[in-house]
Structures are given as C-alpha cells and as structure tokens.
Specification:
This is DUF2294 domain-containing protein. It holds the Pfam family MpsC. By secondary structure, the protein is an alpha+beta fold. It has one domain. It contains four helices and four strands; from the N terminus they run H-E-E-H-H-H-E-E. Strands 1-2-4-3 form a four-stranded antiparallel sheet. A hairpin with a 2-residue loop joins strand 1 and strand 2. Helix 1 runs antiparallel to helix 4.
Length: 120
C-alpha cells in the first residue's frame, strides 16, 4: 500500500462527506476516521437538522429519528461498503451504525476481512 494510514483515513472521511451530500442531500459538519486493526471507525458530527433536534425532546421522537436515520443509511449500505473497499482494497464483512440524538453525531463502524492497520 502506497498511502499512509493518515492519508487513507482522510480519503475515507472525504468520500463519506461526498456520499452523504449526494445520497442524503446534506453532509456532516465534521468527520473523523480512525483505522484500528480490522476496523474503520467513522464519527460524523452535525448530522441532525434543527427540526430533528426538536423532535428528540421525548422518547418517541428519539426512537423515530434513530429509526429513520438508520433506515436511510442502511438503504445505501452497499454503496458504503463499495466506497470502503475502493479506498482500502479490503472487503467489509459487517457494518454497524448509530446516531446520538443528544450530540448529533453518527458513528459508523466497518469491520474488514483482515487487519488493515498492519499494512501501514
């Protein structure tokens, strides 16, 4: 692999921002990607709209926002897996995600077929 770990993490962050803008119509305020062993961990900040924050004042609203946001991401999961593969040359074997309705952050975790960190 010719790229550094930091360069790969930055490339993943930029690609996820672009994917969010194209697929969901708006991107996060900030993205941080970390490669740890066979995991790619991505934190996206500033993903909720003011209207979504307003809905999160009670448990029903929190559950609604979490479900809607998760369903949106899951509908594009094959694109996300392909995006990670194209950057890392590693197959994504599982994908996990959740959104915090308190902080407006989304965490995405991609579990890869092998230890990507060892390649750097």
């Amino acid at each position: 692999m010719n790229k550094t770990k930091g360069a790969t993490e930055s490339e993943i962050s930029k690609a996820l921002i672009q994917w969010q803008k194209e697929y969901l119509g708006r991107g996060p305020i900030a993205v941080k990607t970390d490669i740890l062993r066979d995991l790619v961990i991505v934190i996206l900040r500033g993903i909720l709209t003011p209207a979504e924050y307003a809905l999160c004042k009670d448990r029903e609203g929190v559950l609604l926002i979490k479900k809607t946001r998760t369903d949106l991401i899951e509908s594009g999961v094959e694109d996300l897996k392909r995006l990670i593969f194209n950057i890392t040359d590693e197959e994504v074997v599982s994908f996990h995600t959740d959104v915090s309705t308190k902080t407006g952050e989304r965490m995405m975790t991609f579990k890869l077929a092998s230890n990507l960190e060892k390649k750097y």
